[in-house]
Specification:
elongated; 9 helices; two-stranded antiparallel ribbon; 228 residues; 4 strands; mainly alpha
Length: 228
């Protein structure tokens, strides 16, 4: 069975974002292949994709290494997201389907229920799914891909302080969905811009810290549902 490079790419990206590999650290094909239980071919393809996304750089005499973004570069990405998320919401108001609305409303209900019950451990994940779905509802694959990449990179570069008033954040999500459902592009844009500004203020630059080096132990990519 040949493991798709995108599955290996996702696994390596997730480990970079979570800090398993320190910034500037080498990413050796042999060790990565053993760690994820694959051949070097999908690893090599994955590293090329991650280099295009900005997670990996190729250095002379060192090969592939985890990138070392500066705080200024991180701030630029945060600002770009502030511009793109309102655009996605405005387009979603014009292009969303009933399926998109059903998912968005369901996520809002879950988020609000978690807030009322005081079970906030998965609010960050629900919020990520909300914004992912909103981007998909824009009907623009390119815009959705850009926002997904930005979300991964910003999560890698920043720590987000937990909201002191999570119910307020989910009330904002509900208002955005209402504007999208009514087809009010300008209101969806305005509400999303205000929400994004508030969330951005909670981001703190994640300083470089020692990571866990690549190990020789097996860490297989999940292949249960992969095609032949």
């Amino acid at each position: 069975m040949r493991i798709p490079a995108h599955s290996v790419c996702t696994a390596i990206r997730d480990d970079i974002v979570s800090g398993v590999y320190e910034r500037g650290g080498r990413l050796t094909e042999d060790l990565l292949a053993r760690r994820y239980g694959v051949s070097r071919v999908p690893v090599r393809e994955a590293l090329r994709t991650l280099e295009a996304e900005g997670f990996v750089v190729t250095r002379r005499h060192a090969g592939a290494c985890v990138a070392e973004p500066t705080e200024e570069e991180a701030a630029d990405l945060l600002e770009i997201r502030l511009l793109l998320e309102p655009l996605a919401a405005a387009r979603a108001a014009q292009r969303r389907t009933e399926a998109h609305l059903k998912v968005l409303r369901g996520l809002v209900r879950l988020g609000q229920e978690r807030c009322r019950s005081g079970r906030g451990e998965d609010l960050a994940s629900l919020g990520g799914w909300f914004h992912e779905t909103l981007a998909q509802a824009s009907g623009s694959a390119g815009l959705g891909t850009l926002l997904t990449q930005l979300r991964h990179k910003i999560a890698w570069m920043y720590v987000v302080r937990p909201s002191a008033a999570p119910a307020e954040s989910w009330a904002e999500h509900a208002a955005i969905v209402d504007a999208v459902a009514r087809g009010d592009a300008e209101r969806a844009r305005t509400l999303t811009a205000a929400h994004a500004e508030r969330v951005a203020a909670a981001h703190q630059w994640r300083p470089v810290r020692p990571g866990i080096p690549v190990r020789d132990s097996q860490h297989a990519v999940n292949t249960v549902s992969l095609p032949n």
